[in-house]
């Protein structure tokens, strides 16, 4: 009994950002591109509006299909719509004042401009995009200053976050109490950076 109580105390409730970034990582696994990206839009009250992944147009070939590959133009895959674009489309809204956009990858300049139009106030990401030029990065920083937008890289290691969520779900009453007796660390030993 004491051991169970101690375990419950050790595993804190995940934060909004931890859960949301975990969700978009799951969504990114649906991607049809060589670079798997997931994104989500949340209202200011942190209620989810839409999640999406990057992918080809319906019925069109996927980048990952044998012999197809990405349609690269200036370093950007044009075969796929970006995850942020798809999330905005699925949301079906013109504005999300004070809302959040979280993405596995830093938004490109075009997606970022769309987020500004939505009146998003927070844009978080896990991985640097790498294709934004220095001029585009400066433009994005300038827009952030002018519009009061926070653009930042998520500071936690996502695998550590996912392990925390799994461990919490293994507690009494959790969804994985019966199905996963081990956490990610125990199943896949490695350096977890803790």
From TrEMBL:
Signal sequence, start to end: none
A Pfam family of this chain: dCMP_cyt_deam_1
Record-linked InterPro entries: CMP_dCMP_dom, Cytidine_deaminase-like
Molecular function, one GO term: catalytic activity
Coiled-coil regions, chain positions: none
Annotated ranges, domain CMP/dCMP-type deaminase: 24-124
Protein name (database record): CMP/dCMP-type deaminase domain-containing protein
Gene source species: Candidatus Harrisonbacteria bacterium RIFCSPHIGHO2_02_FULL_42_16
Organism classification: Bacteria, Candidatus Harrisoniibacteriota
């Amino acid at each position: 009994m004491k051991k169970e109580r101690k375990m419950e105390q050790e595993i804190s409730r995940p934060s909004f950002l931890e859960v949301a970034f975990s969700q978009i990582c799951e969504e990114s696994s649906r991607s049809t591109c060589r670079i798997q990206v997931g994104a989500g839009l949340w209202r200011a009250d942190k209620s989810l509006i839409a999640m999406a992944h990057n992918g080809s147009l319906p019925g069109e070939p996927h980048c990952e299909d044998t012999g197809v590959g990405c349609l690269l133009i200036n370093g950007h895959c044009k075969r796929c719509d970006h995850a942020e674009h798809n999330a905005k489309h699925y949301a079906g809204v013109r504005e999300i004042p004070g809302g959040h956009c979280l993405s596995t990858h830093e938004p490109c300049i075009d997606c970022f401009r769309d987020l500004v139009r939505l009146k998003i106030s927070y844009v978080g990401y896990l991985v640097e995009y790498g294709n934004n030029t220095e001029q585009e990065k400066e433009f994005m920083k300038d827009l952030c200053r002018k519009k009061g937008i926070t653009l930042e890289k998520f500071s936690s290691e996502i695998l550590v976050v996912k392990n925390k969520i799994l461990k919490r779900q293994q507690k009494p009453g959790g969804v994985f109490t019966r199905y996963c007796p081990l956490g990610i660390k125990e199943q896949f030993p490695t350096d977890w950076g803790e």
